[in-house]
Design a protein that fits this description.
Elements (H helix, E strand, L loop, with lengths): L14 E4 L3 E4 L2 E5 L5 E3 L6 E2 L11 E3 L6 E2 L12 E3 L6 E2 L12 E2 L7 E2 L8 H9 L3 E3 L2 E4 L5 E4 L6 E2 L10 E6 L5 E2 L12 E4 L5 E2 L12 E3 L6 E2 L12 E3 L6 E2 L12 E3 L6 E2 L13 E4 L6 H9 L3 E4 L6 E4 L4 E3 L9 E4 L5 E3 L4 E4 L3 E9 L2 E9 L1
Parallel strand pairs: 3-5, 4-6, 5-7, 6-8, 7-9, 8-10, 9-11, 13-15, 14-16, 15-17, 16-18, 17-19, 18-20, 19-21, 21-23, 22-24, 23-25, 24-26, 26-27, 28-34
Antiparallel strand pairs: 1-2, 2-3, 12-13, 29-32, 30-33, 31-32, 33-34
Length: 386
């Protein structure tokens, strides 16, 4: 977190001063001490250091083509700043880089930017104008801000990452659909979205950042990506209405207390193993009557160990029925004992069909096998239509 007031940068070994106002160390601009309205940063600088221009009174600042990174808080509280010019060589803009630059209207080019930190453009005219054009503010393939969105939101398939704190405390967001193109959700992305109820996650997602869904107190439905590799710490902290979660077998890292404060959580379906399980309290389920479901639990010492360490009950994962007799034109819902979400298919659609909720609809007399696929294994139920 950046400081509220500008602090004088302490001298460091290797510092040198260019043109009497630019404090440089190596190729990093560490501080600007001038009072000019129009500033041109000298060539050769590759990074703008933390708080280098914080609270400065310049109206325009031009960065040289040599700059590749703008660090966190570099221009925060520069209340007179109206225009910043830099080239497509800039690859990274740090968190809160232009925080509260309330007059900043023009940013010349961000064509080369690959990474943008949280709240980088908070309370700028630039951001407000972008929100008027589209409440989903996207820079290249990064969704950097969704704070102005309302209701049910679909992220376009041009997006590959949803940035840190992008929807932070958006209390008008109720549903989010994330396409397969998105590989990562940044930390704190949906933090405090208290009315978010449903998350539809595409199967391209590989990483969910720390506290991404923290305090989403009405979140009840979420299906995790089949490609998900990492769930960081406190991801679902105090999702107090979340009742069931299925962790796919693609997950390699489950960080500490992922489900801390999920007081209504009843079931967690686990894969057979993780590469990294961060500490004994990785699930973070305390004072909650939750059941852990897994495959071959009698033989799987790993699942039994995690259940013991988290003081939860463990049960074998299974369908509620292995065989079911139904009449023609009847519907019936087949599901896992854990409530886990999966993919479904029917061996004979003329006899019985099944939708993605596991609801079977019978047609003509005969038999059909309904198959549920979850975490690398098929589970079957024989349907007999009489």
């Amino acid at each position: 977190m950046c400081g509220v007031e500008r602090q004088q940068v302490e001298a460091a070994k290797g510092d040198r001063v260019i043109d009497g106002v630019f404090v440089v160390n190596g190729t990093k601009l560490r501080d600007y001490t001038g009072k000019a309205e129009h500033v041109v940063v000298p060539d050769g600088i590759t990074s703008i250091g933390r708080s280098a221009f914080a609270s400065c009174k310049a109206r325009t600042i031009a960065l040289p083509n040599s700059v590749v990174e703008i660090e966190s808080c570099s221009f925060q509280y520069a209340s007179s700043l109206e225009k910043v010019t830099f080239s497509k060589n800039v690859k990274k803009i740090g968190s809160m880089a232009f925080w509260d630059c309330e007059k900043l209207r023009e940013i010349s080019s961000m064509k080369g930017v690959e990474e943008i930190g949280s709240s980088a453009f908070f309370n700028t005219i630039w951001l407000k104008e972008k929100q008027k054009q589209n409440p989903l503010v996207i820079v290249n393939t990064i969704l950097v801000d969704g704070s102005a969105c309302k209701g049910e939101v679909e992220v376009p398939n041009t997006v590959t990452k949803i940035g840190e704190d992008a929807f932070d405390f958006n209390e008008e967001l109720t549903s989010i659909t994330i396409p397969n193109s998105v590989k990562e959700i940044g930390g704190g992305c949906f933090h405090g979205c208290r009315y978010l109820r449903t998350v539809k996650m595409g199967d391209g997602m590989e990483k969910i950042g720390s506290q991404a869904f923290r305090y989403c107190t009405r979140l009840k439905n979420i299906r995790l990506s089949k490609s998900l590799k990492e769930i960081e710490s406190l991801t679902f902290e105090i999702c107090s209405r979340l009742e069931e979660i299925t962790i796919p077998d693609s997950v390699e890292v489950l960080s500490i207390q992922a489900f801390y404060g999920c007081k209504k959580l009843k079931s967690i379906t686990l894969p057979n193993s993780f590469k990294i399980l961060d500490g004994l309290g990785a699930l973070g389920v305390y004072d909650v009557k939750v059941t852990v479901y897994g495959q071959d639990v009698e033989k799987n010492l790993w699942i039994r160990k995690i259940a013991e360490e988290n003081e939860v009950e463990v049960k074998e994962l299974a369908l509620t029925d292995s065989k079911k007799r139904l009449k023609q034109n009847e519907t019936y819902r087949l599901k896992f004992n854990s409530g886990a979400k999966c993919t479904w298919k029917s061996s004979n659609r003329s006899v019985a069909t099944v939708n993605h909720y596991g609801i079977i609809t019978t047609n003509e007399k005969g038999t059909a096998t309904i198959t549920a696929h979850l975490n690398g294994r098929d589970y079957t139920c024989k349907i007999i239509v009489e």
